[in-house]
Specification:
single chain, mainly alpha, 54% helix
Amino acid sequence: MPLNAPGLNPVEGIWSVLRRATVANRAFADPDDLITAVRRGLRQLQGRHDDLDGRLSGTGTGTGASL
């Protein structure tokens, strides 16, 4: 997978959600503060299967994709 193809990289879809909701407009005191915020955002996303599936569907890595 090319690194410059954000549409094919499943991490980019998840990161875009975190950037807009969890880390937007916020100054972090230190790296641990950032890590805590990102972990909190990821935990919140775990229950939103429909949103995650929509983000991953174009990459072929969604929950319905076969290996």
